[in-house]
Amino acid sequence: MIPVEEALEKILNNISILEPETKPILDCLGQVLAEDAYSDVTIPPLDNSAMDGYAVQWESIKEASESNPAIVYVIGEVAAGYIFEGEVTPGKAVRIMTGAPVPPGADTIVQFEHTDEEDRKNMARCSDEIGIRKATIKGKNIRQAGEDVSKGDLVLTKGTELRPQEIGVLASLGYAETTVIRRPMIAIMATGDELVDVGQPLPPGKIYNSNAYSIAAQVQRYGGIPQILGIGADNREALSAMIVQAVDSDMLLTSGGVSMGDYDIVKEVLAEHGSIGFWTVYMKPGKPLAFGIMEHQGKRVPHLGFPGNPVSSMVTFEQFARPAILKMLGKTTFAKPTVTAISESRFKNTDGRRIYARGIVEKRDGQYYVRSTGPQGSGILTSMAKANGLVIVPEDTDGVHEGDMVRVQMLDWREEE
Ligand code: AMP
Ligand code: MG
Predict the structure, then answer these.
(1) Whose C-alpha in 3, 43, 119, 195 is 20 to 30 A from the C-alpha of 355?
(2) What CA–CA distance (Å, rounded) separates 60 from 70?
(3) How close is the Cα of 202 to the center of ligand 1, in Å?
(4) The overall pTM is greater than 0.70
């Protein structure tokens, strides 16, 4: 038996970061930048107005007040995206919109609210004059050219994970495409004569293949591209034929056939196709775990073989396949977010392994609490559907008692938490 951490280390030692690809920025959300991103532009390109108002020389309005407005003569108007052809001189003003470049000569913007523009409109008298009612601070309401980015700046560094804000920053630099570490293609194969695919009638004694779907969805959630190969029957020929279909994938995930059952020939078939190790890991669910390298046509594809029980395959995925996918994607932190919670249930541990129990975490008055989802059998997939976290019941204890503090790996992270 080996601990979870050791199994993970052995797996990650066989996983490499993938190659870069160049594609439209909007297709890169969640991926890791493979090159530094420099700017060819200055943002904003020119000093511009932060307000709708009047561009003036501060000297012309410095004495202005509510009772004694400074009267300026309006020589034109400028909107965002246009350049004012002219100059603001003493006693003059240009009506200016937010984002419009500040006209030459002007050094201050007075927002509409501090002028008598509204009153003049009501007077219905056509006039080119405007009264400024406030001696605004010199330089007020002007956004400086380059206050965000200067031409030549290193704006985003290689290794940055692209969130919506980084996608926006790349767009602000004018990038239509960028170069990121590509997404891994993950081949998924379920094994078992008892399995029937969804959408088919269910003959007596058979069950639907849920693992292929839960695993494919986990692959998607963590940034991989799932390729479901199908259901491998419990015979050598069928399994052999299917396993080699993963030759062009970056990783092969199988479920079932790694325990001690009579029909567990996955091991033998895999051993024929490369090197494979079978481990018993100090964890529950998920004690039997296969890891090896599938070799075919000169290619080497890492293979993780999960136990068939639906909860076991999902929990082992979280511990081992998720970090492998994140490493291939170029990410550098693999740990799932965890919280410390007060347990409101008893979680028994009878065989010294680390248990990942399904729990429901809630925050009340600033404190996390966790309770069991109910029966914890590794075939009870609805326990995963009820859970938002995996309670880590330490190995070599008799488990967690009500009132104990426990660590909980969060499966989801609700926004309000
Ligand atoms: P195995 O690891 O192949 O011995 O399977 C253990 C248990 O998980 C058995 O009860 C199987 O019927 C069940 N099982 C295996 N594969 C799947 C699957 N793809 N979907 C749902 N249940 C499965
Ligand atoms: Mg089986």
Answers:
(1) 195
(2) 7
(3) 16
(4) yes
